[in-house]
Every structure is written in structure tokens, then in C-alpha cells.
Amino acid sequence: xxxxxxxxxxSALLNPTKGILAADESSKTIQKRFDKIGLxxxxxxxxxxxxxxxxxxxxxxxxSGVILYDETIRQEIEGVSVPKYLENxxxxxxxxxxxxxxxxxxxxxxxxxxxxxxxxxxxxxxxQMGAKFAKWRAVITIGEEIPTQTCLEAxxxxxxxYAAITQNAGLVPIIEPEVIRGGSHTLEKCAQVTxxxxxxxxxxxxxxxxxxxxxxxxxxxxTAGEDNPKQATADEVAKATVDxxxxxxxxxxxxxVFLSGGQSAxxxxxxxxxxxxxxxxxxxxxxxxxxxxxxxxxIWARSxxxxxxxxxxxxxxxxxKAFLEVTKKVSLARQGKLS
Length: 339
Ligand code: 13P
What we know:
With 339 residues, this protein is an alpha/beta fold.
């Protein structure tokens, strides 16, 4: 493991004026996003859509990295491989390496993430293709009597093993334990579960001797559940989030990149700004999927839907304009500079 190379990647990903675009939706998830706008996901439509995002002129001012899916890392844009295309633009290519979540046996309604089998070989191939960092997502659900400590510890163990294997392969691991926003729980409950989850994760990260300086945490903000009519203000979310992190995340970790978790673009952006206004011992950046892509996808789809020329070209400039604007706003929030 070349720790200096890992540190270099971490520092580039944490560029103070940029953040990460998560564009690593699995085949199932991208179909779910396309369903809402009446499109069918195929490798071709997925590439047409993602090319629209990646070729947005100027977006490299606000993006340090992009997380790709296995299908996309093997595709081409303008005659070069997608990772090469991004690299030429000054954006670091990364790759989702988990194989998704399955039911956690004996623990109804809880999930465990699969994908450790064969991981070493997959990482070797992805590294050859140009990936410099990886992502693994664990899903933690809040409900009656859940999450259980058993589920938290099982996911933490798998996250730590993935992180160790990934560092040994020369890539920076992003560990993503996501406490899901679905439900009607309070802000306080989410903050408590987030801290409990992260404590379990960093306990195993330590036991597996993962180098903190070559690691990034991607996690949720502490928010009230999406069905709770009493939503917290941005300042309340920021305080609960930073307090939960201070309680559970080692100060030596270089950075935390937040997911948007189904918040609207405005909500996720305002919350990120408030979080950066408080600050902490780590860089506090973003790795959004839905909050960055939502509006652009909607605009792009308007012409793609049912149009004979698949409309992709027609609305590309308008979709790219929206994507650039939201990415710029989120990058300003990441600096606490949104007016
Ligand atoms: P959202 O920002 O849409 O939550 O997605 C982030 C992500 O990468 C989920 O794994």
C-alpha cells in the first residue's frame, strides 16, 4: 500500500471548492429514477444520460470526483473510456464496488451489504481502468426496535474489511453507512442512530488497521424522517449532524462527504451550508446523487420521452445548464459561501 498515493487522492477529492458527483446508480436504481419520468433504462440510454452530465462544460470547476457504476466504467465518451474522459477533464474517476443489499438473516427489516467475494480481483481490474477510489454503501433503517446492535456491527465489520482490501489495492475507500431518511422518526433519533452507527464503524476500522489518512466517510446528515411533519431547520440539522460526528468520528479522518438521501436540492444545499458554518476537525464536503441530478434529469427526459430522435440532443444544453447551476450552488455551500 502506497499511503502517499492514497493521501494525494484524498486531498484532491477534498479540494476546498469542489465535491463528488455520485453517478453510480445500479441498473435497478437507475431504472427506478427513469420510471418517474417514463424512460426505459438500457446501457445506451444510461450512457446518453450520464454523458450529458459528464460533458457539461465547466462542471470540472465544481467536481473533484465522480463515482461510476460497473456498466459505465466500461463505456466510452467521445472515443475514449469514461474514466479517461473524466481524468482528461481533471475529475477523478471512482467506482461503486459493493454488490447491493440483501435481507439480514434472522433480523426482519434489516439489511446487510454483499460484495466481499472476488473484491480483490475487481479492484485490480478497476484500477487498471483508471479508478482511483471506491465506494461501499451499507443501509441502516430506523424503525421500531431497529437498528439492532447486531446489524450495526455486521455492517461495520464488512465496511472495515472492504476498506482494508481497497487500500491494499491502491484505491481510496469511501465507506458509506447510510441511515435512511424514510420514516417518521425525530431529528434526535436520527442523530442518535447516526452516532451509534459511526461508533460501530470506526471501532472496526481501527481493529482492521485501516489508515485513516487514506480514507473518506460518506454519510447522511442528521434529519427528521421524511414522513415527520416537524422538519428541523438547517441550523438544527447542522448542529445535530456535527455533534453526532464529533461523538463518533476520529479527528484524524481527513474528510466527510455527505449524501443527499432524498432531500430536495435546496434542503440538502442549505443544510450543507449550515454544517460548514459550524465546521469541525474534518473537511465537510458532498457526494450527492439525487440532489445534484434531479432537475437535470427531469429536463433531459422531457425531450427523451417518446421522441423519435430520443430527444437527447434537443434538451442537453438546458439540462446541462441546470446541472451546472446546482453543482455550483452546492460547491458554494460546501465552502459556507452561499449568499
Ligand atoms: P443520494 O445523494 O441520492 O442519497 O445518493 C448518494 C449515494 O451515492 C447513495 O449511495
